[in-house]
């Protein structure tokens, strides 16, 4: 019987180590505290300590995104669709699932949208990516093929999506007209001149 107790303790130490590694991975990708709490078995206090140690600041406070509307607007929809297509590929072809699939898909998403020489935040955060997966799993959002280009895009499940045209084929008139987009355009122009 004495031999069994150390094995149990060893398993819990290994499990705790795995949970800490998972939390570190998610914190480095920008996960919010609520996401960390829901995906690990570590205590809130331990997660806050870990977050402060890695980031040097306390985790941000506030509620998680709870509306599907954000994912349906022009730029977020494109980024959400890129991420979700990568995530779906991971599920279908790699045997990875759960939070590991989200982490790997998000890492690949970041590689695809990275702007060289820019410290700009990605449009889609890890927390929003996780929320997107939850919305699709609960059938509030779904993928729909564009009738023009054939790409798969995130749409509201309850909208009429017959002959859907994506935001890339039918760009809204105000798309890309933000101050940030203008500043980036000026930088590109001045670099080529």
Compute the CA-based radius of gyration: 20 Å
Overall helicity: 40-55%
Distance between the termini: 78 Å
* H and E string: HHHHHHEEH
On the 0-100 scale, what is the average pLDDT?
85
Stretches where pLDDT is under 50 for at least 5 consecutive residues are 1-9, 184-193
Sheet having the most strands: 2 strands, antiparallel
- Using the alpha-carbon principal axes, give the shape: globular
Tell me what portion of residues adopts beta-strand conformation: 5-15%
- Strand arrangement, largest sheet? 1-2
- Given helix and strand content, the structural type is mainly alpha
Number of helices: 7
Short key terms for the protein model shown above:
single chain, 193 residues, mainly alpha, two-stranded antiparallel sheet, 7 helices, 55% helix, disordered N terminus
């Amino acid at each position: 019987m004495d031999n069994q107790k150390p094995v149990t303790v060893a398993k819990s130490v290994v499990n705790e180590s795995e949970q800490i590694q998972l939390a570190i991975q998610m914190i480095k990708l920008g996960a919010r505290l609520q996401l960390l709490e829901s995906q690990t078995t570590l205590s809130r206090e331990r997660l806050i300590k870990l977050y402060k140690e890695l980031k040097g600041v306390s985790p941000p406070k506030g509620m998680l995104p709870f509306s599907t509307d954000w994912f349906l607007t022009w730029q977020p929809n494109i980024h959400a669709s890129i991420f979700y297509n990568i995530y779906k590929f991971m599920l279908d072809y790699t045997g990875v699932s759960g939070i590991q699939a989200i982490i790997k898909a998000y890492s690949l998403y970041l590689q695809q949208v990275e702007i060289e020489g820019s410290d700009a935040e990605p449009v889609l955060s890890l927390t929003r990516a996780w929320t997107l997966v939850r919305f699709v799993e609960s059938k509030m959002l779904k993928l729909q093929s564009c009738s023009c280009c054939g790409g798969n895009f995130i749409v509201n499940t309850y909208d009429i999506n017959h002959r859907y045209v994506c935001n890339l084929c039918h760009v809204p008139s105000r798309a890309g007209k933000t101050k940030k987009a203008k500043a980036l355009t000026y930088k590109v122009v001045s670099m080529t001149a």
